Amino acid sequence: MKNGVKMLDIATKLGVSVVTVSNALAGRDGVSEQMRKKICETAEKMGYKPSNTKSEKKRLAMPKIGKNVGILTSERFVGARGTFYWELTASISNQLSQLNVCTVYECVTADSEKNGILPNMVTDNKVDGIIVIGQVHRSYIDCLSKLTMPLMFVDFYDNRYNIDSVISDSFNGGYMLTDHLVEKGHRKIGFFGTLNATSSINDRYLGYVKCIMENELEFRNEWIIGDRNERGILNDKIDFPDEMPTAFVCNCDETAFRVISALKSKGVRVPEDISVVGYDNYTVSSICIPTITTVEVDLTRMAEVSVGIMAKKLADPGYSEGRRIISGRLIEKESVLDINGSYGEERSDAV
Q1: Domains of the chain, CATH where assigned
Q2: What would the pLDDT profile of 81-91 be if each residue is shown by its tens digit?
Q3: Is the pTM of this model over 0.85?
Q4: Cβ neighbours, 10 Å, residue 336
């Protein structure tokens, strides 16, 4: 049997659409059992080899669950123009639907989070499990941890609670960004991010600090600048130190975007005067001028792993995965200047 058989070949042979073949092979609805069997048998005879990754095969082969899962996000992460978390929520919801799991979304308000008021989907018994996307306060985690239904966190964790979580490799990402700046000749590097606001910011900061220490670079407290208030909402105004570094590592692309805008308003050029890097590789990193060098989070993989864990927890309430870390990669764009061989030349007077 020849290799390289595609879904189109199977569809042509059987006189059906490629969508029908795709749905049949993936186990999705919309195909009769008789046709599904015929397509699968034909695919096997023709030597069709699916291009799905190993993890995707496992997910698609999982039995249909037929339950409801709640997705909970704090209102501080819900922006008017959409956020990284919106895309992550959509990806998780889409993958859950392929397992016949319905998604119930709810945004927890600041007051509810502060006062420990559980979401309506829990009090009304609408869900069989909960996925929390984005950091919530420890007091609220304490309330959620008392629930008897499957619970997991995405993009954050809390060491005090034995709750499964899926996170990006923030520590290594913070290190990669800082090391990239070091490779480009930067020796005075600051960090933008409110420490202790989220586990992700802390880990990215610790990666930054490790790189600073390893390279024996100057560390200044005034170069560690908060980017959000006590409610976790990004600040409108940015206060820069009197003496500026040559580069800033920002904990996310949104913060990097705001830093670049604030620098421009002061007449500072990016990257000619100061370089800026972000994290996420979300939409804002590409629409910014200059485009932002960043660490790309494998959002699809995060969603895939999260869905796989929740599916196992729904099937076995006693199942525990622990913490899964999803690696990212550095994406070089236009916001970093290589200053090797020119360090200190008219740069300290940038602001």
Answers
A1: 7-51 (1.10.260.40), 68-168+298-328 (3.40.50.2300), 170-296 (3.40.50.2300)
A2: 456 888 899 89
A3: no
A4: 22
